[in-house]
Amino acid sequence: MERLTLLRKQLQEANREAILVSNPVNVAYLSGFTGTAGTLLLTAQQAYLLTDFRYVEQAQQQAPAFEIIDIKNKPWQVTAELLADNGCRALTVEADYLTVDTYQEIVAALEAVSVEAAASPVTPLRAVKTADEIKAIEKAQQLTDAAFKQILAYVKPGVRERDLALELEFMLRKGGAAALSFTMIVASGSRSALPHGVASDKTLAVGDAVVFDFGCIVDGYCSDMTRTVFVGEASDKQREVYDIVLAAQEAALANLRAGISGKEGDAFAREVIAAAGYGDYFGHGLGHGVGREIHEAPRLSPTYEGLLEPGMVVTVEPGIYLPGEFGVRIEDMAVIEEQGIRNLTAASKELYCF
Ligand code: ZN
Ligand code: ZN
After folding, report:
1. SS3 state at 138
2. How far is the CA of 188 from the centre of ligand 1 (A)?
3. Torsional class of 259: left (φ above 0), alpha (ψ -120 to 50), beta (otherwise)
4. How many whole angstroms separate alpha carbon 296 and alpha carbon 79?
5. Model confidence pTM above 0.90
6. Distance from residue 296's CA to the centre of ligand 1 (Å)
7. Residue 146: how many other CB atoms lie within 10 Å
């Protein structure tokens, strides 16, 4: 209920009378309802969950704080009636989720109500995690750490990237993960310079860097980690780049804390990489929030001015990508605390050669 109270407080501060929450991730976060067809309508006094007959019973069980309404194929008419019952003349909808079509349908159907499309006010709430949410993320990361440790035994010349990805997925699912957080990245040799090289038919060869970037979902929450290992031996240049990326990550982990902006957080790592002469080869932000979704607020990037708050969970993932040669990325997940961070990732960052 805490979440609804916080959301209502926000609505009140922004002078909003009612909000329609359509993004299923936000619906589940606020209500507990996990069906694929459900919309929340929240006013100062009332909390409704609009769904269809397939989900009425499930909604009653999962979302006891909400009054369950069967929309009977007329979602916007029902919405208009509920708003009228509550004396609401204005409705906020999620601009960052609704399609243009749906938005226009709503505007047309709610003649007497002014419809405001705005960035979802649920996003900043989700960015700050409760102890239970952090526990779920930790559980997912523990499985991910364990899978990484096991997969190292499979890294050798001649093995396909695809087979490594499959083994990892099996280990995670066997360990209790509901699903992967995202399509796994296993990228070797010159493919490791592709920041998002999903596993291919390529086989590992001596001298390859291999980037593993993967995670899984436990209790509805995602994990995310990256490690880079080498096949046979690492060249001097590979070792140099690996050490710079690791130093950049360590600088960020040592300095991140509540109260600084995402931009300042990003700079801790970016400065190390730039000072080493590889600034042009770190083309993405340092990190992103992780929770119910693999990428959510906040961001650690040169353009993100938002402030970090205690309880936010962010990835810290500097990388250097040398096109046609190789790439190195190292990624941990950290909880932001008042004075620093708590690292949720335990997997070794030793430079492994197999
Ligand atoms: Zn990742
Ligand atoms: Zn990530």
Report:
1. helix
2. 16
3. left
4. 28
5. yes
6. 13
7. 15
pLDDT digits (tens, 9 = 90+) for 31-79: 999 999 999 999 999 999 999 999 999 999 999 999 999 999 999 999 9
- Give helix then strand counts, H and E, for the chain: 10, 19
For residues 16-26, average pLDDT: 97
DSSP 8-class letter at 335: E
Q: Which ligand is nearest to the CA of 284?
A: 2
**All structural domains of the chain:** 2-126 (3.40.350.10), 128-343 (3.90.230.10)
Angle at the Cα of 212 from the Cα atoms of 192 and 182, rounded to 5 degrees: 110
Calculate how far, in angstroms, residue 213's C-alpha sits from the geometric centre of ligand 1.
5
Between CA 333 and CA 347 the distance in angstroms is 11
Q: What is the Cα–Cα distance from 263 to 306, expressed in whole angstroms?
A: 8
Site of tokens 């009140």? 12
**CA angle (120, 124, 130) in 5-degree steps:** 130
Tokens representing residue 144 in the block: 């991910």
Can the peptide bond before residue 298 be classed as cis, meaning omega within 30 degrees of 0?
A: yes
